[in-house]
Amino acid sequence: MQGVLPTQCRDFMNKQYWQRFFKKIKKEGQQNEFFEWYGNYDSYNHLFKKYIKMEDSVFHAGCGKSLLSEQLYDNGICKNITNVDYEKISLDQMRKRSENKRPEMTFQCMSLTVEINIQSEQFDVILDKGTLDAIFPDEETPQVNAYLANMLRILKKNGKFIIISLLQDHILKTLLQLQVNIQIYECVIEKSKLYPFFIVIDKSEQKSIQFYQLQKEVQTLTFKQAQEIIKKIQLQNHFVTSIHKLRQSQSFTLDIWDNNNKQTPRYKLDIYDNDDSKILLQKTCGCFIVPQGREQSFLFGTEQGHKELIKQMKMSRCVIARMNPGHKFNNMKQVQQELSEPMKQLIPKGCTNIPCPFLTDGDEIGEKNIIFEADDCIVEELNIDDIKYRRLIIKSALDLIQSEAKIINNKVDNSYLDFEAYVAIVAGLAFNKAKEVLILGGGVGLLSRFINEHFGVKVTNIELSDDIVNIAKTFFDFKNTESETLVCCDALDYVDQTLECHQYDTIIVDINASQANQLSPPKQFLSAEFLNKLRTLLTPQGIIIINVLDSQKELTQLPWDLYYSRKCENEINEIFYLINAQKEKKELDGKEIDVIDKGLLDAITQQLKDSRVNFSKGKWDNSMNLATEIDNIKLKHPVFKTQAFQTQEALLVQDGEIINNRKEFYQEDLKKVQKKKHNRRRKN
């Protein structure tokens, strides 16, 4: 199968690639008397035994010259098998092989992409190994709808439709849109460069997507999550097969698992091939081990930091190894020994510095202890530069720290906030003199406690997870008081129940997505409908502060008239400050356009300036310069243009007069041009 897989990840999206793929794979089949698309019976026997019973009637769609039916029969899985294919010569050959040995097997020649003469609900199992991929090589194949409709019609109500497929994007999307119950298994075929998936569809009333990833527990996914995780696996599998070849600027990620822990990978490896062609030609390789507790620092926790580290390492291939939460690591020697075998698989062909060196920052891996572990989260303690920290990690998003507190004398230090995003959120209190704050997504209450203790503000926290509420009380010293409460409740429900009942000066939205690399907070919390509900909960001078984590650049603009923002420098978060301003509109060039009063902007600027003085007097940790943080808050929307050819997002009005009129800008620009011409003439 050499040359079948794509050489670049973008080829997975390419129609021509799939056409070449099936042409090559069919050619391979012609060279062998019996050809097995995507592996043989042994590759899936554990799954066949799980889903096929001896008494079942099986419809093998597109059987071709596969020996799968014979092997199911001979291994005692089932015998009542109907083999169907449109190619008569091959079908007759397979019939002759079995007519005496396997009397209960039958063969029918027919096309499955047109109406078929078979009664509805006739079969317990429909088996498709590669057939769907063959008849549906790209999204421009309408006959696939007839094929799937035929299969689902002849399948019994409680039957199983088993599909073995590479799950190209258009196939996965089509299957997920069937509104059926679907189970997907990741598979590995020994000595093969193909990585198919084993899919089981049934017509039960329960409609869900369950994914069985190798060495991991079953996951229930959304449509989008299923697409993302399967694409990630496909790209990872592709690079594993061609991993020994250096490619300029190539990068990918691998998880290294421990057989004793099927919930979280033990290591995460980020592999980078240098973008400098001269360094690439040296064919060197090295592994940098990130010390525990330093994962979120700029150098080790950001894309830009990784680029800087790669420059420092000066290797053709750089492997950045991270020790994941939920695992115990004794010393650097143990870590190097465990990474030695994976590194052998990652060494580029012709590598000139074998054995590859292991590098790190300092001599030790860092001290870390797991003090609590549940099905979905971990609480761990670690020492960084002789300072103890306590962390909450959500297992579905290992790259993110949900909460981190500094521990002094076994107590949470309430004068300190670790995250730059939290510091920026607190700086947002400078917009008004808040007396009451609502936090949606309260977590373990660290942000709440800081605001309550240092600003004397009453705080209500809403947290969805009952486990996290209990962790807050057990491991992060949270106690409900008259001025600070942590309520276990759905944020959407709480807002609906509180409408017209209560108002807050500041509402903070700090809700994490359920999976890594997803927009946080999820889109429903950034919709116009939800934000307008929050507006009704605000006092007249109230403000909404939203902590947004958008690694995929999904968010372009918030549905709000006037807001400021602060982009964190060492984190990928951006904090938005939504001003509760009255909306006005004017007609300009036949279109309605928002109107912003310059007096309001001036008042906000003055309020931030006044607050800066008060924020410089706080009794919090010296490392948190909140006064300077206020200076980093800038107007985000609308943007007022200053040149005649630029279209305004909004009109800026002062004393009832428009001061960003395009005509006036044009006249100003014209004066500048005329002045330049006049100066040139004088020089001449």
Automatic annotation (TrEMBL):
Residues 57-197 form the Methyltransferase domain. Keywords: Methyltransferase, Multifunctional enzyme, Transferase. It comes from the Eukaryota. GO terms for biological process: methylation. GO terms for molecular function: methyltransferase activity. Transmembrane segments: none annotated. Belongs to the methyltransferase superfamily. This is Methyltransferase domain-containing protein. The lineage of its organism: Eukaryota, Sar, Alveolata, Ciliophora, Intramacronucleata.
